[in-house]
């Protein structure tokens, strides 16, 4: 019987996963809390530097072992298909582990776990379709072509809000390309990733291909990103931590993919379908409790419809059902961390002091007892100069910002250090096309929001980071290009003159 169920883990300390084995850590443990109740439910270790080194060396061993290095691309894809089937068979168990760790809705975690399996199948099919190119150089006796090869050992640092989904953005393209991985889950939500590791072993992946070390960012995370045997880093989190990781990685010239959050504009034009637009704004900020990197936390509204939009949003916020995340009719569950509850409170008080008008919410949902629940909150009369409009909150807090015309709208939308996502609600396709070109964001949604696809590249500009997940762009991130030149002329050439090809 699997160890990794919510009942089996109650009161227990999680292990590490190294070289296809679950091993106890020698490090100190720290508690993991259930956000719905605020009570401790399990614990996890803060792995030692030696254990991080063992995990990285296990991954390096996989890269040099015939079992993984010489496995055909088609067989790699078959392993991934097998793992995807195992995930599909264990959706409920994996989803409940995530809910227990981060408090997000069971129905959303269930949908996301199904999406993990579907995404894995997408990349499994891509495993034997990773191609190089033949280059038509101007010398008829030379053959010039490229190979795409795996990068090597990938260190993935995964946040707490959607562990499996965000892990898989790195896992599936990296494994399809033939890399090996060491993963550090968030110290707040590791259970589902260790359950995933169990399925990796069951699917038949060779030892060392996938490893999990748990612990804090300043201990385990730092040891991982500084390790000289790590070939690439994949990190999702805040820009402050992203800068630290980039600086540490630079010591070994280790490249990185960094997705660092956002302060995304969700814009309603005067000609928009307001029913759809208001629903899109609600989805963009209150779904998942606003705990998503692409949260549309700045709602820009044209002056002529501002009052009506504000009234509609306040009415919708009042209807949102707050409840236990496992209940089918719950629409807003707890925040994942008590520190997030405190952070939201500071932003709310700061917005009031700055002159924003509190239209809805603004406090804890006291009816939920000791759980970490926050009311859906809306502020009006927000300006881009306020902290509530400039910094990522990662909670269910929306700021309404007025704009007068399209130029004002673009200027205000781009007036942010972030550039991850954006949304525009309009029936004017000419306006939509202009917006698409001028917005400084890596993702643009028109008349929809929070609508990602595994087939479409995602990633941000500016302080939202660099690098891409999803689509074939992700394969490019986890492969490196090797150029091969073959001279089949049979001639000996002047050794003091370069045979320049152009």
UniProtKB/TrEMBL annotation:
Pfam families: Aldedh. Keywords: Oxidoreductase. Residues 22-484 form the Aldehyde dehydrogenase domain. The active site is at residue 259. Belongs to the aldehyde dehydrogenase family. One of its GO terms (molecular function) is oxidoreductase activity, acting on the aldehyde or oxo group of donors, NAD or NADP as acceptor. This is Aldehyde dehydrogenase (NAD+). PROSITE patterns: ALDEHYDE_DEHYDR_CYS, ALDEHYDE_DEHYDR_GLU. The keyword Cell inner membrane does not apply. It comes from Salipiger marinus. Coiled coil: none annotated.
